[in-house]
């Protein structure tokens, strides 16, 4: 019997093709998944980068806008500070301009106080008030100038924050967690709020400075005008006072010229009265002597005759005349004392008026020539 060969292929040792094919299929599937993952990741990264770029660009625009606003405020503040410094220099010059008029006024007051005479209206109070106003304005300006530096400091303090925020997009990813924590310690809303506060402070300081400058300008103009008016009024008062002193001095001199002859006349009258008293006293002594002699007559001859009556009447009349004349002498002496007192008062007043006229017309006029009030 012939043997029939088997159809089963001979078994040869080698790799399992089925497993290899399965592994290959899985590898292809994994590659497809990875490609899809890579594609999706790239899309997401590009989307995130585009979003970050948009947000960073907007952030940069916001920062640039805020920076421009702050720089504008900074420029306005610097200009305002320069104007305040110029205004403070004006006030300082105004204070210096007040020193000489005040010194001259005090000298005039001192010269007039030595006279113990009534004074006209002076500049002392107005000049002191003016100096106080300037000093107050200077103090306010000095204080306000210090306040005006604060917005400038705030602006400079805000500069590093802006630069820090500007560099956050490029350096934030390469720095550590601690730096990122410090970097983002202030939220954008807080940063914007602080910037708005700085802008508001700068605007407030600028408005306050403008108001202050307007106030000080008005004070300077008003003070200059008041001082010029006061100087003019004082000059007119001096001229009027000089005229009054001249008139009073002239009247006193006229009255003194009348008193001197009257005093001499009164002296002559007194001398005449004394002479008349002497004559009447001699006549009285004569009459009394005659009466005494008539009393020496014999008793039978001592009758009250007409001669005796006339002698007694003569004695009474002469005594009355002497009494009246003595009273007139007393009144004459009183008149002389009054006239002498008036003469001395007039002479003293004339001397004082002459001295006062010299002070007002010569000394004060020469001193006041140095007073020149200009606009501050």
TrEMBL record:
Q: Has UniProt tagged this entry with the keyword Hydrolase?
A: no
Q: Name a GO CC annotation attached to this entry.
A: nucleus
Q: Which GO terms describe its biological process?
A: cilium assembly; cilium movement involved in cell motility
- Purpose: Microtubule inner protein (MIP) part of the dynein-decorated doublet microtubules (DMTs) in cilia and flagellar axoneme. Forms filamentous polymers in the walls of ciliary and flagellar microtubules.
Localization per record: Cytoplasm, Cytoskeleton, Cilium axoneme; Cytoplasm, Cytoskeleton, Flagellum axoneme
Q: Does the keyword Zinc-finger feature in the UniProt annotation?
A: no
Q: How does it assemble?
A: Microtubule inner protein component of sperm flagellar doublet microtubules.
Cross-referenced Pfam families: Tektin (PF03148)
Q: Which organism is it from?
A: Mola mola (Ocean sunfish)
Q: Read off the InterPro entries from this record.
A: Tektin-like (IPR048256), Tektins (IPR000435)
* Name of protein: Tektin
Keyword line: Cell projection, Cilium, Coiled coil, Cytoplasm, Cytoskeleton, Flagellum
Q: What family classification does the UniProt entry report for this protein? A: Belongs to the tektin family.
């Amino acid at each position: 019997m012939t043997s029939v060969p088997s159809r089963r292929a001979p078994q040869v040792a080698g790799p399992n093709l089925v497993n290899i094919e399965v592994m290959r299929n899985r590898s292809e599937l994994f590659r497809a998944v990875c490609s899809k993952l890579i594609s999706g990741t790239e899309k997401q990264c590009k989307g995130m980068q585009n979003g970050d770029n948009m947000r960073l660009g907007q952030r940069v625009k916001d920062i640039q806008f805020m920076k421009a606003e702050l720089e504008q405020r900074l420029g306005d503040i610097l200009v305002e500070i320069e104007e305040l410094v110029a205004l403070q220099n004006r006030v300082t010059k105004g204070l210096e301009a007040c020193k000489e008029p005040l010194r001259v006024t005090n000298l005039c007051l001192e010269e007039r106080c030595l006279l113990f005479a009534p004074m006209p209206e002076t500049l002392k109070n107005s000049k002191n008030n003016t100096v106080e106003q300037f000093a107050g304005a200077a103090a306010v300006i000095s204080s306000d100038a210090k306040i005006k530096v604060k917005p400038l400091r705030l602006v400079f303090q805000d500069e590093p924050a802006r630069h820090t925020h500007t560099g956050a997009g490029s350096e934030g990813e390469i720095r550590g967690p601690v730096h990122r924590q410090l970097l983002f310690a202030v939220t954008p809303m807080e940063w914007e709020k602080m910037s708005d506060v700085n802008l508001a402070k700068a605007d407030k300081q600028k408005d306050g400075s403008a108001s202050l400058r307007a106030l000080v300008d008005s004070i300077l103009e008003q003070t200059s005008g008041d001082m010029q008016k006061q100087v003019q009024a004082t000059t007119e008062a001096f001229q009027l006072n000089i005229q009054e002193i001249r008139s009073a001095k002239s009247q006193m001199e006229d009255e003194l010229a009348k008193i001197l002859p009257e005093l001499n006349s009164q002296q002559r009258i007194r001398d005449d009265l004394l002479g008349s008293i002497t004559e009447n006293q001699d006549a009285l002594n004569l009459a009394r002597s005659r009466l005494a002699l008539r009393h020496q007559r014999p008793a039978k001859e001592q009758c009250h005759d007409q001669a005796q009556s006339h002698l007694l009447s003569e004695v009474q009349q002469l005594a009355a005349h002497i009494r009246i004349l003595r009273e007139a002498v007393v009144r004459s002496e009183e008149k002389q004392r009054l006239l002498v007192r008036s003469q001395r008062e007039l002479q003293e007043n004339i001397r004082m008026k002459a001295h006062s006229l010299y002070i007002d017309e010569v000394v004060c006029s020469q001193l006041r020539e140095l007073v020149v009030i200009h606009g501050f």
